[in-house]
Please model this.
Amino acid sequence: MTTAIVVLVLATSVIGVVMRLTHGIAAGHGRAAAVGHAAALGDALGPASFGPLRVFVVSTGVVALLLTLAGVVVLVGTAERLMGSWRTAVAFVVTTVVGTGIGALSAFVDLDGRNAGALIAGRATAFDPWTAIVGTIATASAFAGPLWRRRIRVGTLAVVAALFLYAGHASDLYAVLAAAAGWVLGETLRNAPKRVGWTRSSHRETRVLLGTAVLVSAVGPVIALVSRARVGILAPIAAVVGAGPVTPVAGCRADGVAGECLRGLLAYRATDPWTLFLAVPPLLVLVVGGLGLFRGSRFAVWLVVVVDLVTAIAAAVTYGLVPGRVERLHGTEDRLIVTLSIVASIAVPLATAVVLVLLRRSFTVLPTRRRLAGFGIAVLGTAVVLVVVMLVVADASPVRIAEPWRIVVSALGPLAPTTFWEHLPRLDPGLRLTLGLAGPILWLVVAVAAIRPTGAAPTDTDLDGSRAAREQARALLVAGGGDTFGWMTTWQGNAYWFAADGRAGIAYRRNGGVAVTLGGPFGHPDARGDALTAFARFCDDNGWTPVLYGVDETVAAPLRALGWGTLPVAEDADFDPRDWTTSGKKKQDVRTSVNKAAREGITATWSSWQDLPTATVRQIEAISEEWVSERELPEMGFTLGGVDEMRDPAVRTLVAQDAEGTVLAVTSWLPSYDQGRVVGWTLDVMRRTSAAPNGVMEFLVASAADRMREDGITRLSLSAAPLAQAPGAASGSASGSASASGPGSGPAATASSSSGEGVQNLLELVGGVLEPVYGFRSLLKFKLKFGPELHPLVLAYPDPVALPSIGIAVVRAYLPDLSLRQAVALARGRG
Model:
């Protein structure tokens, strides 16, 4: 099918060129036909535009043709692989007909005395390959997994929407309509249950989608500035960015009319490289911010928010809305178009800023204070120097400026409102040049200075200020080891405390006045005991309540001796792979799964993330995104990893694949060290496709045991299922309070016991309501199939009075993004 379409595009291109040469219409209409357009399109469309839209303009030529053919081969070829040949053919035809057919009706907005039938027929019969390509890949998105379905749709809609809103050509309208038609057609052709409601994205995917949207918003104004027929409703933003305070724009003055200003902005374009250079620096800031969003930078969020807010304010002032002349719109021509352009020019950047603020929790990487200081010094220093230079030049100018504060505003350069300067012809050349260069220079400095704090370019250090601390934690874990949660302490989001001699450390997360540790101390075994009391003293010095979460009896016992109380929170399950086998009645399910996998040709591959083939990596990412999208809650963290944690070179993945190489399931394993040697592995991520056969996870764990036996590993941990205990676990035996080791019959003992039960009830409630979503208790039952040894893990606390805040802190550690609405919904579901 793809080959046939390539031939079709080549044929229509040749026919179009021949007809253009025959009729000579290109010069007469002031524009070149798009690749693949019939020559009759130019005759039918005529020279005028329709409302805010004009005919798509690109030059025919070898480069354009090659780009179109590449689009057919890559995008249509991908669509054919996703949904098959006959669906691809249907999508190619249907979306083209719908896109051009409905788009042709826009002729009624722009007849200009011409014959409506001929004009509509000309537009409806025009063939633009990109309309068909966009519609086809949008249709195919319905057949992709959740990860690529969303990426294809967001990417496609972002591109076509940017072209339509900023350039506004007829073909851009056709592409938008074709994309929408493809979306509907894909859901119709895909005969599968439809999920109703919002599909949740992982934090990583949220970063990718928002970063893509910001990058497109940075490219859009450039497209509009260089376009020969720029009439999209967001095109004025490009002119606002490009014109600046020293470039006269017809109609954009303090006593002007919004409609006249709009027409002046639409007529403005970057006609030379110098003008384009002056307009690009603010857009470079958005590019740097967009790249930073990909890396999860919180600084990039605020950087983009500031630029969008400045853009919206500049557009509002340029249109004269801030001084309060909105009523002038009622007396202008094309009121609807003018209103849409003004509203969109202000609302779109504001909406982008609002979305970023609302989703800022997905961006967890924070810059170091040193990098923030460097950015601030560079930007503020440059601004001061530029303002001083402008004031000096203005003072030396023969033209007096009555309001010097306008000099400061002009430092915004391309984003300074064009209405600020009403006597531009009277400015001398030196002052005009200084004011024209000041803004672009400042924005260029902002863009360059933001590279390090946003992480737009890879660096040798992390952006959250904890690289050195994490490296120290890793070194201690390798040298001395840790407990069940040991390697999880190296994940982002943890804060660190280290003993004075540097031989032990503790990872923790603080919520309000409670510091919840991730397991117990790690490092050299002989230094861990003293680390407990030193960490407790450190928290007390800072006014925090220390809580050791998920510690075993070796840590809990000395704490109880000090008067601490404990509550059971999980069961750690492990076994020695050197003597583990699948024999025995209790392991019947495991044995059956292993035999079934062997019959079906399923294999298990043990590898680091970096050594996996690219195709395998992409499949794992898609599986993970599908898993996240099926949950109604935000991603959990703390002791639960994901794809980001699997990328650690020290971590290993075990991937189940069928005979064709399709990934069925994946697990990840965290290392445990002793004196620099790996002595154990801990199971972390367990995710599978919906089409994976039953028993694939049992097969992977059994395969891991076989691999570890060969490597001489002494401990395989199935990890601790958080907020879950084995049937018959004695919750009371591990629980206690500060009064448990002393006289314990008074009111204080009763109160502390009651508080402990309250927190335990809270954790049980959370575990219960999360069970349908995350299956902690089901996960524990799964682990029991392998006959492991169980070790109770407890939460240790010093003060029963703080138990209510401790319970909340633990829940927030697992669900930092849990909203009040989601919490209420969970509680109702539990009830």
